[in-house]
Amino acid sequence: MIRLIALLLFISLSTGLKGHSWSNLLNVELIEQSDLVVQGQVIKKDSLYYISIADLLQGDVNEEVEIIRPNGYPLGIKLEENQEGIFFLRKVRKENKYGFFHPNCVQNTNQRSAVDTAFDIWNQPERYVHGFEAEGEQVNYVLGQLFSGWRVTCQEVPILDTLLSNRYLDTYSKANWARRGIDTINVKITSADSILIESTIADPELKYLFEKRIEWFAAKEKIVSGNELTIIIDNSIRDHANLPYEAASNYLKDKLESKEIRIVRSAIKALSSMADTSCISALMSLVNASSLAVAKTAISALGWSKSPAGINLIGAILMEKSNGYPENHRMLNIAALALQNINRSECLPYLTYAAQHGVERAFYALGMIGDENSFEALMMMLSNNTERCYEAVNPLQLLVERSNYKLEDWMRRPSRDNIPRQRESIPRWLAWYETVGDDFSITKSLLEVLRERR
User: What phi, psi does 117 have (nearest 5°)?
Assistant: First the structure.
């Protein structure tokens, strides 16, 4: 029998917290991410803090629990002795201790009704879907998670079900929604510094995403040689006992017509999590929505979907607005990123036009998905419009790495904030370009370059 450590790749989910700028979490998100939810009172014993449980809402602990770092940075939570409240807690590794993971983890007792509603939505979403009478961000979120694509199962190391999940990795923003089915990843640790990964995943970007994360987890946890894991990635459509996929999909598509911006945006995100290609036409109708927040979310989702249907619609935004850059810079950069994600040759003329007018994201997109014509266009930008297009030196490094030419040390991209260095390198790029001739060709994809860098 293969020896496996029970929590071989366990990493506290708190390591996934990005920075110290906290976005609001819905109560259903707190419920999803908590091991223990209680209503109780803070008690202090010497220098240690505990929560005495008056009402257990989630979990299997019926007595007081010890809290680690109760007042620690960066959450901003300040517990006081005898403080009453509702507490969302996550267990700390193998210890019988708990900790907070978000500023919203401590709520006043007068929020109990709202928390109870969140539990009801989490446990019985079908009650809110049938009849279309209810609408709310929490219902949308729960449906997105309940019918999430790319569901991960690893019997040997169950924590990977979470650490490689759609929610944790934002898989929906990188994988092709149209590719349905079940894939298998086999992982074997052949030595202390060698890991063999074989998979049936056809989508190269999705394959790279999982490989990179698995290698990172393995290295961080110092997996011993000889371990083998089998990871199942399920992106098939599935129904639930009391709620079919189609009913959830129709409910969310109905919410795309809501008057509430937050409802529309949360419905887009839920449909994205579900990899629901049936919403593509509805997303296209929102690209020119009166709400910029809705329009930008719809454009992003079209990019995530990888569907070519939205190319001309998104491209039209770049053609119409790029000549005023940096006005509308957020919209234009989101549109350029969406075309980069779709990654079709039809995207390149739009991206080239946007880059010619200084749209920052368009430069990088050309480096990542551009072709020989993109290389020529970037060089012309450097030659004819140095003041506005100096950032073209950044994607040129990628294009050279992807080409039949060897990357030279001076070509390496300076810091994006080091504008003087970017401008200083332009004459050298133009001189080098004169020596290249007509034999410059793109021979590698971006993913091939990224694999070589590893």
Answer: -65, -40
Q: Are strands 106-107 and 97-99 parallel, antiparallel or unpaired?
A: unpaired
Cα separation of 179 and 220, whole Å? Answer: 31
| Cβ contact 14:7 at 8 Å | no
Task: Name the one residue in this structure whose structure tokens are 């911006």.
Answer: 261
Average pLDDT over residues 83-112: 93
Cα separation, 54 vs 132, in Å, equals 36
Q: If you average pLDDT over every residue of the chain, what do you get? A: 89
Q: Give per-residue pLDDT as tens, 364-406.
A: 999 999 999 999 999 999 888 877 777 888 899 999 999 999 9
Please name which of 160, 124, 162, 157 lies closest in space to residue 143, comparing C-alpha atoms. Answer: 124
Calpha distance 229→221 (Å, rounded)? 14
pLDDT value of position 305: 98
* The predicted structure's pLDDT at residue 414: 67
Which of the residue ranges 5-14, 59-68, 194-203, 395-404 would you say has the lowest mean pLDDT? Answer: 5-14
- Whole-prediction pTM value? 0.90
* Amino acid type, 426: I
Of the listed ranges 310-324, 335-349, 412-426, 440-454, the one predicted with least confidence: 412-426
Q: What does the buried/exposed string (b/e) look like for 346-367 if buried means 16 or more CB atoms within 10 Å of the residue's CB?
A: ebbebbbbbbbbbbbbbbbbbb
Alpha carbon distance 71, 94 (integer Å): 22
From residue 148, alpha-carbon distances to 141, 143, 191, 201, 282 in Å are 10, 8, 35, 18, 19
